[in-house]
Amino acid sequence: MEGNKSSSGAVETIDVHQAKDLLDDSGYTYIDVRTTEEFNNGHVDVKNILNIPYMFSTPEGRVKNPQFLEQVMSACNKDDKLIVGCQSGVRSLHASVVLLESEFKHIKNMGGGYAAWVESGLSVKKTKSEL
């Protein structure tokens, strides 16, 4: 095995309260890696938020977004402070590993994801889709 950091042990996971504090006060941006549909149904209520899906829902199931890294790199630079979150903390962990392996320096995974955020009674927003 080469000396690259491919283990998820390199990812720092924080809880939703730590995430909220960092997002409120420390210049962090929240990257919600859930699907656009999930995001529109409700997301964390913070000032700096991006929805860049790590996976897409297809009729065959979920598939990895082939442009995920490219989309993050067009919206953020490698020195930005980023908190990555999803529904329960699994997709965000995988996305965090990808970002760290791509030399992003300040990545934190939000453990428990949006479900834990809601369970903790923290503020959420819903995006109404116009049909």
Automatic annotation (TrEMBL):
It comes from Aquilegia coerulea (Rocky mountain columbine). Residues 24-126 form the Rhodanese domain. GO terms for molecular function: catalytic activity. InterPro entries: Rhodanese-like_dom, Rhodanese-like_dom_sf, STR17/STR18/HARC1-like. Gene3D superfamilies: Rhodanese-like domain. It holds the Pfam family Rhodanese. This is Rhodanese domain-containing protein. Coiled coil: none annotated.
